[in-house]
Design brief:
Elements lengths: L4 H13 L4 H5 L5 E4 L3 E5 L2 E5 L4 E8 L2 E6 L4 E4 L4 E2 L2 H49 L37
Antiparallel strand pairs: 1-4, 1-7, 2-3, 4-5, 5-6
């Protein structure tokens, strides 16, 4: 049985116009997945966070999910419920993550600006206090007269009630 080129063209035209499944229309090439949620990975150098929408390449299927790697080569063990093949959903998730990060950065920037303003006010108050002190210096206080220093206790005669022992007489 020979198939005419016109028939083949007609089949391709129909398939291009009406995809079989909506999921198939969104599904990229086999082996490409996207994270649905943020995932933390412990590595030798610390903890790495992968955001929702991150593109993954299938390395191997496992009993409880899959082993995949990112475009950077980071491998991660995932459950099937953590990934999708829907590229549109992945783009939406990536945008949501970017919006969350932008909101957090704006909040951190606002806190830093408020702290800088508080520091500026405290510095201004300290400078005003210093200016007041320099404008009205304190006058030195009068002190009690200091008695003159004298020599040691041996320079003064012993008190009257003190009796000195007489040297013993020399034996002949």
């Amino acid at each position: 049985m020979k198939i005419s080129p016109l028939f083949v063209s007609l089949i391709f035209l129909i398939l291009a116009r009406f995809p079989l499944l909506a999921e198939d229309a969104k599904t990229p090439d086999d082996g490409i997945y996207y994270l649905k949620t943020r995932v933390s990975i412990t590595t030798d150098s610390g903890i790495l966070s992968l955001n929702g929408g991150t593109k993954l390449h299938l390395v191997a299927k496992t009993a409880d999910g899959m082993k995949a790697k990112t475009d950077d080569g980071v491998q991660v063990q995932l459950k099937d419920s953590q990934v999708t093949k829907d590229a549109d959903l992945a783009a939406k998730l990536a945008q949501e993550e970017a919006d969350k990060i932008a909101a957090q950065q704006a909040q951190v920037a606002a806190k830093a600006q408020a702290a800088a303003e508080q520091q500026r006010l405290a510095d201004a108050q300290r400078q005003q206090a210093l200016d007041r002190i320099q404008a009205n210096p304190a006058k030195p206080m009068a002190s009690a007269p200091v008695p003159p220093l004298s020599g040691s206790a041996l320079d003064n005669p012993p008190p009257a009630h003190f009796k000195m022992a007489k040297p013993a007489a020399k034996k002949k």
